[in-house]
Design a protein that fits this description.
Elements: H1 2-22, E1 29-33, E2 44-48, E3 51-56, E4 66-71, E5 76-79, E6 87-88, E7 91-95, E8 98-102, E9 105-106, E10 116-120, E11 125-129, E12 136-137, E13 140-144, E14 147-151, E15 154-155, E16 162-165, E17 171-173, E18 182-183, E19 186-190, E20 193-197, E21 200-201, E22 210-214, E23 220-223, E24 234-238, E25 241-245, E26 248-249, E27 254-255, E28 259-262, E29 270-271, E30 283-287, E31 290-294, E32 312-316
Length: about 325
């Protein structure tokens, strides 16, 4: 009798395990992608037409400018012509077949700049475009439709939103202000919404907040706050909701491997499988309902340049 009961119990456990494995989302996990050519402590990335573009300016001795494109199907990288100027802490966004790099600091002097550059993915060359209304670095950008939007950062008018018309090449300053002045935040797009996650406040603290800007109404709203304040996290919208990954804290001088998820109708962030290693200032992008995390630094502050990475991690829900 005991033997038969044990066999029954074993069968139930196996069946339960099979059911759990079949539930959508429970198989979600990270996998490694092919590494790119150079370790970078701070990378900019954007996705367009099925390709992720990763670029970095010269960020000090031992680092060089590079620009590469990643094909997730072939799991391989191809080199592209780097941006013609030495920049760090710039912002990058893609749309309408164009990649736009704005602002940053001039390598060597670390002077903030308002210059902007555009890369044509069809013709594979860089063109300098009209400069932003003000100088900014560590800011955030996103493209929806024919417009580029610039948020926060360090420099001029940091509570104002700049908008660039990709067609006319003209800049404007939108009415209103950001709800909270931020730099080094994560940014992503969902339809007509631009989602800004975490970041550093004007007082140097890590933000818990998730702000959403609608480009049609030009209004802001807030989503549930993160469980932890994060500076320079990665963020992406996948089929199951919003994912916020990695980042660091100034107060604790700690880098995180944390992975938070908010479902479409969720009222509270939940923990997902963490990154294989802690990261901040990564390049990140979404392709084929997968979140790619590329490069970045493991250590924070002074140690960041010495802990640069060239590894790629990919999450599929």
């Amino acid at each position: 009798m005991v033997y038969r009961f044990m066999r029954f119990l074993f069968t139930v456990v196996l069946a339960f395990g099979f059911v759990l494995a079949s539930v959508p989302g429970l198989k979600a996990e990270w996998r490694s992608g092919v590494s790119f050519s150079q370790a970078v402590p701070e990378a900019g990335a954007t996705s367009s037409n099925g390709t992720v573009y990763l670029l970095s300016g010269s960020s000090g001795t031992g680092f060089k400018r590079f620009f590469e494109a990643y094909n997730i199907v072939e799991d391989g990288w191809r080199p592209l012509t780097p941006i013609p100027v030495d920049r760090t802490q710039f912002a990058v966004a893609a749309g309408s077949g164009q990649i736009v790099v704005t602002g940053g600091r001039v390598a060597g002097s670390f002077e903030a700049t308002k210059s902007s550059w555009m890369f044509s993915t069809a013709k594979s060359y860089w063109t300098q475009i009209s400069s932003m209304p003000g100088r900014r670095y560590e800011h955030m950008t996103a493209i929806i439709g024919n417009f580029l939007y610039v948020f926060g950062g360090v420099g001029d008018d940091i509570d104002k939103i700049y908008r660039y018309n990709l067609g006319s090449g003209e800049w404007s300053i939108l009415p209103g202000k950001m709800p909270l002045t931020l730099s080094q935040a994560g940014i992503t797009v969902a339809g007509s919404d631009i989602i800004i996650a975490g970041g550093m406040t004007a007082t140097g603290q890590a933000s818990y907040e998730i702000h959403v800007f609608n480009v049609q109404s030009l209004n802001w709203r807030r989503l549930p706050s993160l469980p932890l304040g994060l500076i320079a996290p990665a963020v992406g919208v996948l089929s199951d909701g919003i994912h916020v990954v990695g980042g660091y804290s100034n107060e604790l001088q700690k880098t995180y491997d944390l992975h938070f998820w908010l479902g479409d109708k969720g009222s509270k962030w939940q923990k997902k499988q963490p990154l294989p290693e802690a990261r901040h200032h990564t390049g990140y992008g979404v392709l084929n309902d997968q979140l790619l995390i590329m490069g970045g630094a493991v250590g924070s502050g002074f140690f960041a340049p010495f802990t640069a990475t060239d590894t790629v991690y990919i999450f599929k829900p």
